[in-house]
Amino acid sequence: MHEKRNFILILVLGVVLIWTGWAWFYASGDGFTFMRSTSTALLLVVTGFLTYGLTIEDHLPDKLLGVIGSYYFEADGVCLFPVIRNSEAGPELSIYYQNRFENPASVVIHLRPTGESFVVIPGVTDVHIAFRVSGGDVGI
User: Fold this and answer.
1) Residue 64 has pLDDT above 80, yes or no
2) N or C: fewer beta carbons within 10 Å in the chain?
3) What are the boundaries of each domain within the chain?
4) Phi/psi class of residue 102: alpha, beta or left (left: φ > 0; alpha: ψ in -120 to 50)?
5) d(Cα 47, Cα 50) in Å, to the nearest integer?
6) pTM of the complete model beyond 0.85
7) DSSP assignment of 16-63
8) Is the pLDDT of residue 75 over 90?
9) DSSP 3-state of 7
10) 94, exposed or middle or buried, with CB in 10 Å at 0-12, 13-18, 19+?
């Protein structure tokens, strides 16, 4: 989410950090000069925006935690928990999912069992499931 913006903020943070280091350690003048104060203020602002963008922004509540607990797979804000059970009709695969961001996500799941635990189609050993999750969706 906002990868381009965060990448640019990281680059700007690097440049501002170098500028701040230069202003404090190599620039002429004693005391708290305009360049030192400006570079330090800009460093704090960019660090604040980057911290907000990487930790707080876009995260929605973890509703899946109340349903299945804290043991699930999460990648890029999409949480998954596969459940295999026996029913009268045969084996049943349910995938609990949640998108913890506001924007939709495309999800592709590759289930590759170890050994010969099950075969859906003779000669095929893995299952591919693809679906789209809207922002903040939780479901099975």
Assistant:
1) no
2) C
3) 3-56, 64-139
4) alpha
5) 5
6) no
7) HHHHHHHHHHTSS-SSS-HHHHHHHHHHHHHHHHHHIIIIITTPPP--
8) no
9) helix
10) exposed
| Nearest Cα to Cα of residue 20 among 4, 49, 42 | 42
- DSSP-derived letter for residue 15 is H
Q: In this structure, what token pair is assigned to residue 47?
A: 């660090």
| Cα–Cα distance, 82 to 132 (Å, whole number) | 16
Q: pLDDT tens digit string along 26-55?
A: 887 777 788 889 999 999 999 999 888 887
The sign of the torsion formed by the CA atoms of 114, 119, 125, 128 equals: negative
Structure tokens at 21: 């280091």
